[in-house]
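Query form — protein Flagellar biosynthetic protein FliR

QUESTION: What is the three-dimensional structure of this chain?
INPUT:
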Amino acid sequence: MISIGTQELLSIIAAFLWPLTRILGFIVVAPPFGNNGVPPLVKIGLGVMLALIVAPTLEPMSNVDMVSITGIMVLIQQFVVGLAMGFMVRIIFAGIEMAGEVAGLTMGLGFATFFDPQTRGRSTAISQFLVIITTLALLAMNVHLTMFEALVTSFKTIPISTSLEMGFSSQKLVIWGQEIFKVGMLLSLPIVAALLITNIALGILTRAAPQLNIFGIGFPITITVGFVMLGLVLPYLILPLENIFRHMIDAINSMGQNLPSKIPTSP
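ANSWER: The structure tokens for Flagellar biosynthetic protein FliR are given below.
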């Protein structure tokens, strides 16, 4: 009869609980898994399935007591690492939302706001439309599988240890915040440029014919031009999104401090 002692049982639980904590930290934050519309049981079940796959491949840490201060610190560290990786994905979607906000405000649709279940705040209709398109593109290109692959690989580049250091460069995480503005500008630039030319043309028209009511004709013209440009941009949106997703995966893989500190710029 096989007998398992208390210490062996705690070691087995710890070997499963620590990677599960990092995985759940990632799933809670990273879209589309972190969406509030996803049931908590689905998130936990997905995390448990991934942890069952990852845990047997990790080196055991039998000298660390799970219920000790060191074990609790390791647990917190793994949760913070998972949150940081998920936060990098969330920043990309924040850039997509910013692109929709800028395009919507330029079109004159700043008042057309709706409740966003992702952030539990208010966002414009254009922002929600672009986020839906981005989410569908992410799933269609199997980027969610690549994200899980990067998460599993992180256990090699950022191993579970008792060191006080988190194992990743916090400077890279801070610098990654600039992607909000880079992605927002990249995706909204065609629409903003077209509307800028439209507003210049309306200004010249108003100076040439002062009797025209600029508020009566300008608003429907800018909205029409904005939607036309949005329809023209959509077929070509897949390439920049693919480059953005590739850049995001590379940044997640390079979070370890043992890798080069320079993050490649978006194309």
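ADDITIONAL NOTE: The chain has one domain: 6-253.
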